[in-house]
Amino acid sequence: MSKTADTDFSYASFETTGPRALTKAQPFAHPQSLLDLPPGEARKSLLAVHDILSDRLGSKTELAIYEAGGGSTSFLPLDILHRAHVTVVDIDEDQIRNNGYAHEKILGDIQTYRFKPGSFDLIICYNVIEHLPDTESALLCFCQSLKQDGLVLIGAPNPKSLSGVVTKYTPHWFHVWYYRYVRGDKNAGKPGEAPFPTFFHPLVTLSNLEAFASAHGLEVIYRKEYESPRFPEMRTRKPMLARLLDTAAAVMNFLLPGKTDVRHGDYHLILRKR
């Protein structure tokens, strides 16, 4: 059952002490999510995303941001995060509890949760749409709640990449094993911690997302497929396994038609509401 929310967009400052404390944004400061990325294409693309968001939203002193699915990590540039009213909706109670930067935290389903039309300057859905069984419903909710000239940032895995195919066709326990023993994340699989079950709705592919955007009054202003950060991470943590996967990827790229690169495991997409 869908819900409609009439959000209070009073703009509160960030706490400077306690669990929600955030360091005051300084010029060229970056969020921890970016600093945690290994050098490579993923970091470069996220920096480009930050430049676009700062440029497009820089003239607005009060920003309303909706984060569709949000845990403890923000992927937004700090100059935007620190002057915005951030509303987070997530179906996972642990994720809501772990979020320390949102001003309003709502336990709900982003596939059905609705806000007043024209409520937000920016909607961010990062590493979330691949986990939704009904991605289209979530995107339609985004379109409705976005202001004119507002932006949608989507970060997601590419289901046609090597990592995407492995994720799609392997059981969830294997994903937990990979996170724990290859990536070294001891908390993987615990309540509120990645990895989460993945559905890969057809709209998760870039081409289908672009077609959806065109049909619903959105234009693409940034589109980038990039090498999954898992590859440079693995080259550091598990070099022998990384060489094996790099060799397999090179063979697959040679055999596949066109300019396909199966290492391009993730993408960024920024849409503007016309």
Automatic annotation (TrEMBL):
The keyword Hydrolase does not apply. Residues 70-154 form the Methyltransferase type domain. It holds the Pfam family Methyltransf_11. GO terms for biological process: methylation. Keywords: Methyltransferase, Transferase. The keyword Repressor does not apply. One of its GO terms (molecular function) is S-adenosylmethionine-dependent methyltransferase activity. This is Methyltransferase domain-containing protein. It comes from Bradyrhizobium canariense.
